[in-house]
Amino acid sequence: MKIKNLLFVAFFICLTNVYSQIKTKKITAKNQERFITTTISYPVSGIYLYDEKKEPMIQLNTNGTGIYQYEDLTKKNITWGFECSEIGIPLFNEGFDSASYSLWYKTNDKEDSEWIYAQFSIHFNKKKMYISGERVKEYIEEVKNKILD
User: How many CA atoms lie within 13 Å of 129's alpha carbon, on the beta-carbon side?
Assistant: First the structure.
């Protein structure tokens, strides 16, 4: 009986550790409570640009901060995340060779505290990610060796 209880406790601790890795944040956007996370299965951090241009850009950092540069080249610090369930599972719509996520961001200005929605899409065949269909970043899929993991 003690072994059975010990196995149950060990399983529960492992399960807790798995779910504790995904950090979520509760926000209120468009008069509705939502949850966001910066963790999805793809390398989303980096700089997103219009094709063949260096500016304006959007920079997403892994810690949920970043920079949004407007058309007039002014830059604002932002906080961002992808909409997810309360336990951190990202919500997305899957297409034929793409996935679409809800990206929420807000500037860190005191006078502008509204969360703004932007579509974030990943196009698997092209190996590109888009914010609002305009700013793009190429990515490389990480291949994990199951023998070493």
Answer: 22
- DSSP β-bridge partners for residue 34: 27
Per-residue pLDDT of 35-76, as tens digits, reads 999 999 999 999 999 988 899 999 999 999 999 999 999 999
Q: Are 118 and 88 in contact (CB under 8 A)?
A: no
The pair of structure tokens assigned to 143 is 């291949």
Q: What is the pTM of this model?
A: 0.79
Please state the rounded mean pLDDT for residues 11-34.
72
CA–CA gap between residue 96 and residue 48 (Å, rounded): 23
Q: Which of 27-31, 36-40, 134-138, 139-143 has the lowest mean pLDDT?
A: 139-143
CB proximity list for 24: less than 8 A, separation 6 or greater: 35, 36, 37, 84, 86, 87, 88
Closest Cα partner for 82 from 16, 23, 141, 136? Answer: 23
Cα–Cα distance for residue pair 39/22, rounded to 1 Å: 7
Looking at the chain, the number of H-run helices and the number of E-run strands are 1, 11
